[in-house]
Write a structure and sequence with these properties.
By secondary structure, the chain is α+β, with helices and mostly antiparallel strands. It has one domain. The chain is 35% helix and 25% strand. The strands form two sheets. Strands 4-6-7-8-9 form a five-stranded antiparallel beta sheet. A four-stranded antiparallel beta sheet has the order 3-2-1-5, with helices on one face.
């Protein structure tokens, strides 16, 4: 008779057990989604820095190739290179462009440590042909911000370096990390 009673017992989970498991799964999913969102934003900022640095290196090479001044300006989300000095350059003589996507925007007010001049804020993004050297301005930077977040990308040209350095900051442009 004892055997008959044990086989008649119902099998399954109680409602309380199911709710506890679902609650735990929800909490873990929320934590994972938040971490994933931060990772995506960080990668977009990093990609923006690398892409703008590559674009500016291409502009520097093109400046040396055509042996004429080229000015880098921005028009909203578009960064463009136009033939001529910054006083004369316009979209009419544009030779190339790069467009930011999504919530990324050029930041004309931020510079950060080591950046003497934000090229887009002061029209100092003038590339000048130099034999054997980068045509990029001697020093300065271009800063990109990700929406309303504290995450920034920057391309930096130092007087002591012949290349353009991509950097990121995840703390409101207080510290910069090279890529």
């Amino acid at each position: 008779m004892h055997m008959l009673h044990s086989s008649e017992m119902k099998k399954g989970f109680t409602m309380a057990e199911i709710l506890v498991v679902l609650t735990i799964m929800g909490i873990l999913s929320a934590m994972g989604i938040s971490a994933m969102r931060d990772a995506i934003v960080n990668n977009r900022v990093k990609d923006a820095s690398l892409n703008v640095a590559a674009y500016l290196e291409r502009v520097a090479n093109e400046t040396n190739r055509i042996s004429d001044k080229v000015c880098v300006k921005n028009d909203g989300k578009e960064l463009y290179a136009a033939k001529g000095d910054c006083n004369a350059a316009s979209k009419n003589n544009k030779i190339s462009s790069y467009t930011l996507e999504g919530p990324l925007d050029f930041d004309l007010t931020t510079r950060g440590k080591d950046c003497s001049d934000n090229w887009l804020a002061s029209d100092d993004g003038e590339f000048e042909p130099r034999f054997g050297l980068s045509a990029a301005p001697v020093e300065g930077c271009i800063v990109i911000k990700y929406g309303a977040s504290s995450k920034f990308a920057r391309v930096l040209k130092l007087r002591t370096k012949n290349n353009i350095i991509p950097q990121v900051s995840y703390d409101s442009a207080k510290t910069w990390t090279g890529l």
